[in-house]
Amino acid sequence: MEQTLLDMINQIGKYCRSEKMTLSVAESVTSGCLQFLFSQGDKCSIYYQGGISLYNNYQKNRLFGISTLLTQPNNGVSPKVSELLAKGANAHFETNIGIGITGFAHRDPAYEVKDPYCYIAIALDDQIVYTVQVETNSDNMEENQIYFASKCISGLLTVLKKLKQVV
Predict the structure, then answer these.
(1) pLDDT tens column, 39-74
(2) Please, what is the average pLDDT of the chain?
(3) Which sequence spans correspond to the domains of the chain?
(4) What is the pLDDT of residues 133-145, one digit of tens each?
(5) 3-state DSSP assignment of residue 153
(6) Within a 10 A sphere around the Cβ of 91, how many other Cβ atoms?
(7) Sheet of strand 48-53: strand arrangement
(8) Is 3-163 in CATH node 3.90.950.20?
């Protein structure tokens, strides 16, 4: 793993431990990358509660109750779905910080996806504090998934720095 990414994860962990906050993820497009990355942090079992991969719309509906009205038109890829995933992670894992991510890691003509993109949302308890769209023009699905996961981590660090200076 890239040292800079591990450094960011460790800064997030230090903040969570000092503030007695917990973290969970609900990921679709990254399919477990975030779960792996957070498990690499120092003392991660103190704050990182776990994650879930909801890779298809059936699971988004069945496990998180996300309506098919939200998922059918765009294969479950929208800012709203990422926000529901973030809030759902907090609810299911009883955490303070939830990350939700959904997107397309490859070009998909069926959904008119010319370049891969994702939506990332971060919830603090029940409040969405961050939503962003991230794009790439790479054809490499694996690289795109890792890139999107790294953008989640840097986005979370930005949010936490706004709450309190992370050292």
Answers:
(1) 999 999 999 999 999 999 999 999 999 999 999 989
(2) 95
(3) 3-163
(4) 999 999 999 999 9
(5) helix
(6) 17
(7) 48-53, 23-27, 97-104, 117-124, 127-135
(8) yes
DSSP 17: H
Helix (H, G, I), strand (E, B) or coil at 119: strand
- For residues 107 and 117, what is the distance between their CA atoms, to the nearest angstrom? 9
Cα–Cα distance, 23 to 12 (Å, whole number): 10
3-state helix, strand, coil in the chain (%, to 5): 50, 25, 30
DSSP one-letter string for 27-63 = ESTTTTHHHHHHTTSTTHHHHEEEEEE--SHHHHHHH
Tokens of 49: 């509660």
**What's the pTM?**
0.94
Q: What is the gyration radius of the CA atoms in the chain, in angstroms?
A: 15
Pair 68, 100: CB distance under 8 Å: no
Residue 151 vs residues 71, 133, 136, 138, 148: alpha-carbon distances, Å: 23, 10, 11, 15, 5
**In which band, very low, low, confident or very high, does the pLDDT at 164 lie, cut at 50, 70 and 90?**
confident
